[in-house]
Each structure stands twice: as C-alpha cells, then as structure tokens.
Design a protein that fits this description.
There is one protein chain. A hairpin with a 2-residue loop joins strand 2 (60-65) and strand 3 (68-73). Helix content is 56%, strand content 12%. The chain folds into 2 domains: 10-74, Arc Repressor Mutant, subunit A; 78-108. Helix 3 crosses helix 4. With 117 residues, it is mainly alpha-helical. The longest helix is centred in the last third of the chain and has 30 residues, at 79-108. The chain has a 3-stranded antiparallel sheet with strand order 1-3-2.
Length: 117
C-alpha cells in the first residue's frame, strides 16, 4: 500500500520535526514568514515549504498584508491528534504518580548511615 503524502492529514504533517517547531511558535500568536525563519534559524524558502504543507492540511491560516504573509495556528485542526492521544493521558498520569510515590518513598528510607535521606 502506498504511503499517504504528508499533505493529506494533520498526523502526517506534524510528523516532521520542523513543522512541529513552527506549530509551537505559532501557538504564541501570529507570525510572518520572516519572523518564523529568524526565530527557528531557518531559511525563508524552507519555512515557506513547511507552511504550505501545514496550510494544506488546515493547521495554519495565512493572511496577506502587502507583500508579507502572516500565519496563525488553527488549533481546531489539531483536534484529531488530541483525540487520538487523550486516552493515553490517564495512563501517563498514573505512571507519573506512581513514580512520584516511589521517589518519595526512596527519599524517606534511611541511607547507609542509618539516617534519613
């Protein structure tokens, strides 16, 4: 079976690390292509290619102002990813709670001197 192109859905689009970095940046607000390129220390053409993919799957929206393009995150388009990951959240929370309990227990155990940690 042929692999689905990266422009087909949010899952494939965010599989690329640079695109995730762009999404992280846009989560803080609207940015121009040049601002994104500068913040991520990437060349403008590379950023534009990644933004095109993100725009095609609906993860970002573009707004033209003069010769510049400004991008914002469309967080609603991340919903399929959130819905897929959310069942694992409870498992992660429980494991971290058990780890915290174990660490607390280890800190209260006497050390080799017979004194508490």
């Amino acid at each position: 079976m042929a692999r689905t192109p990266t422009t087909s859905d949010a899952f494939n689009a965010v599989a690329e690390p640079q695109r995730r970095r762009i999404i992280d940046l846009l989560a803080h607000g609207e940015q121009s292509v040049n601002d994104i390129a500068a913040a991520l220390q990437m060349r403008q053409p590379q950023v534009s290619k990644h933004l095109r993919v993100l725009r095609e799957v609906g993860l970002v929206r573009a707004r033209g102002e003069g010769r510049q393009q400004f991008y914002t995150l469309n967080s609603e388009a991340l919903r399929p990813i959130y819905e897929w990951v959310s069942p694992y959240e409870q498992t992660w929370r429980e494991r971290f709670e058990r780890l915290d309990e174990l660490l607390d227990e280890l800190q209260t155990q006497p050390n080799e001197d017979g004194l508490g940690a």
